[in-house]
Amino acid sequence: METSVPGLYAVGDCTQTFLRQVVTSAANGAVAAVASERYVKELGQIEGILGPESGKIAFVFYNPYNSAEIEAVSQLEQQLMGEWKVYRQDITRQNLLYQNLKVRRTVSTAFYENGKLLEVKER
pTM above the 0.90 mark? Predict the structure, then answer.
């Protein structure tokens, strides 16, 4: 990082572009690898849950950073238990199904029976 002026060092955009591009590319590759791994894992979990003999499943989508939503999900879970197997979907960590269903709001619920989507209720 040494410059032509003794004691003056450069950082950031003032440094060699080639190396910065290499580091940026490596970082972007790491982010893509983690994202693709997360996608495959989440897809596998969903497919494992929604089999043809899975029965009645309810996915409840919520934002864990909203206290009111956490409370609403707990109440909804109590209402659905017994008739439905409930899976909480924290949309900050598990958003594949949320995005695929084009759900616009939380707290929302996707109801499935034996792997088939019945309806999505946005509250």
Answer: no
